[in-house]
Design goal:
Structural class: mainly alpha
Protein name: MazG family protein
GO biological process, one term: response to stress
Largest sheet: none
Helix content: 55-70%
Distance between the termini: 73 Å
InterPro entries: MazG-like_dom, NTP-PPase_MazG-like_N, NTP_PyrPHydrolase_MazG
Order of helices and strands: HHHHHHHHHH
Strand content: under 5%
GO molecular function: nucleoside triphosphate diphosphatase activity
């Protein structure tokens, strides 16, 4: 095959080649010395910038921030390809993700047939459980480093799925929309700050207690027979 007949590299191929060039001998010294650990701060920052673009940015902002997050993924894969004991590259990352998505969508790629949204969600949880049989708690796999509010939402959602928390707990506040919820949350944080209290730490502490209670309930009985843990009262 002559050089002129070679397929034109895709934009993604060019990005992978750019990262490789930056990390290669004679490339950028900073890029060459980075590790998975040293890049965590940039992944966190770029992720938050992407969220901001989704929530309040323009189409061009979204395009740029998606690129920044993609660059982090390619960067980590490049490091892994050169790290003994890891030995995978971006193609392996893509292959693993494709296999996971195909396996988790039997109603699309398998013979499960058309399903309702509720059935799809339930099946998703079953497939994930089969993929990770070593997990013994509904809380396993939840990143504890998530911001406290996001962590609270995830923990409560997991516990509700197996009946350890009420799906429709008694309303403590008359809230009908996020437009009403936002100012209330802001007022709580403001009141806490005025008293010298740390809202993030306070919620994390409450979440640790809740997770301990959930794990204890799981150990005492089968999830289907476990008693419902009451939401904290105001």
């Amino acid at each position: 095959m002559t050089e002129s007949s070679l397929p034109t590299p895709s934009a993604f191929d060019n990005l992978v080649a750019t990262v490789a060039r930056l990390r290669a001998p004679g490339g950028c010294p900073w890029d060459a010395e980075q590790t998975h650990e040293s890049l965590v701060q940039y992944l966190t920052e770029e992720t938050h910038e992407l969220i901001e673009a989704i929530e309040s940015g323009s189409s061009d902002d979204l395009l740029e921030e998606l690129g920044d997050v993609l660059y982090q993924v390619v960067f980590h894969a490049s490091i892994a390809a050169e790290t003994a004991g890891e030995d995978f590259d971006i193609q392996d990352v893509a292959a693993r993700m494709t296999a996971k998505m195909v396996g988790r969508h039997p109603h699309v790629f398998g013979d499960a047939g058309t399903q309702s949204l509720e059935a799809v969600v339930a099946g998703w949880d079953d497939v994930k459980a089969a993929e990770k049989p070593h997990r013994t708690s509904v809380l396993d796999g939840i990143p504890q480093g998530m911001p406290a509010l996001a962590l609270a939402d995830k923990v409560i959602g997991r516990a509700q799925k197996i009946g350890l928390l009420e799906t429709d707990p008694p309303a403590l506040l008359p809230i009908d929309s996020e437009a009403e919820l936002g100012p209330i949350l802001l007022a709580i944080v403001s009141a806490a700050k005025a008293q010298g209290l740390d809202s993030e730490r306070a919620l994390r502490t409450a979440l640790r207690d809740l997770q301990d209670e959930i794990r204890s309930s799981e150990q005492e009985s089968d999830p289907g027979d476990a008693g419902i843990i009451a939401f904290p009262s105001a």
